[in-house]
Design a protein that fits this description.
Layout (H helix, E strand, L loop, with lengths): L1 E10 L2 E11 L4 E5 L6 H8 L7 E6 L4 E4 L10 H7 L7 H10 L16 H13 L5 E5 L7 H13 L3 E5 L3 H7 L2 E6 L2 E6 L2 H36 L5 H20 L25 E12 L2 E12 L14 H9 L6 E6 L5 E4 L12 H9 L3 H10 L16 H14 L4 E4 L7
Parallel strand pairs: 3-7, 3-8, 5-6, 6-7, 13-14
Antiparallel strand pairs: 1-2, 1-4, 8-9, 10-11, 10-12
Helix pairs in contact: 7-8, 10-12
Length: 432
Amino acid sequence: MIIGKSVSLIYDTKAILNEVDFIISNNKKIGVVGRNGCGKTSFFKIINGVEAVTAGNINIEGEKLAYLPQEFDFPDMLVGEYMESKLENSWDIYKIDMLIEELKFKNYDEYQKISLLSEGQKMKLKLMELLLADPTTLFIDEPTNHLDIEGIMWFEEYLKRLNKTVVMISHDRSFLNHTVDEIWEIENTKIFAFVGDYDNYKTEKLKLIDKWDEEYKRFLIKKAQMEKLIANARKITDGKKRGRAVESAKKRYEREVTRKAKEKYVIKKIGDIEFDTDVRGRKLMLRFDNVTKKYEKNTVFTDLSFEVRGGERIWLFGPNGAGKSTLVKLIMGDEKVTKGEVKLGENINVGYFAQKQTHLDYEKNIFDQFLAETQCDYNKAFGILKRFLFSGDDLKKRIKNLSPGERSRFAFAIFAFKDYDMLILDEPTNHY
């Protein structure tokens, strides 16, 4: 059992969690949701001892925890070498074979470098490492970000059979509907627990918003009444009586308004995004002519031919390792074909939004990075970043202190500043 009592977490002067209580137990499957930057990953880190709480305490009784972060790095090792290094002794080698079968960890060579695995394979490798330690409670941050459709379906079934407590951060509503018993939402430094799946959470949350709206309306009525009381007190002609009446009215205002202040619930959304292009419909954007791509003995494509025309919307999908990223690299010119030709249409400006934002300078703050990347007018930059939900205080944050979701949203603000004729978006919904 994991018990949190009056837990608070503060970064600089910003409260992430404020005196929250929680209990995690009984082999439950819990989905943690909330807007980017609300504190979901920080919540996982303080439970798993990666960061310290500012106040309160977390007691872990009879539990062995394992934490699979959203972003992880591997050493420069072979797959088999890495797996064996995680065993307590060589006699446990059979556990690796069992987990390979259990996790359906396939299409790899144990003598292959980890860096050559797909993101989905890397996620399974990390999960295998955690399971070798036989934890009782798993904390998993955005597991579906690294999995293809087949992988997500496998993981859903795997979690249903897994006899462990699992707490997951996810933006994938369908995945949460199929896997969790409870939804915990982190909002405005508090944790709100909802029994049931994601659809039930949506229904109950709407009821809660209606309740908050009614409380806010009553607060405004009370505020207006108290303001009128103070105004009437100031109209009293007798000086002594006026002073006592005003002082009494102000105390009531402090007690009944200031201390019980309510804020209007606001759902924040990113503003509309438009890309300016002169490309007419059906213009040739991209052509592959009999393209073959090989990496040593591994053939990714053979005689691949297709065209993309203006106005078309194309969904590129396939299992991890099938060659989706290789296809994009060929289009962008980051890889060369083994045979055949890749041709872009005339005067086509291609915009590529990558899954990993490696071009960002993590030491810079949001505002300076945006100006450096876009050469945008100083005053105009404030409005653009506000449209992407970055407040004035946010602009001082360093990139390295952003959550993965905030970092992705910021990178898209830079991306959307420019105009493109063709967009290539690699897993754009991972953080939304």
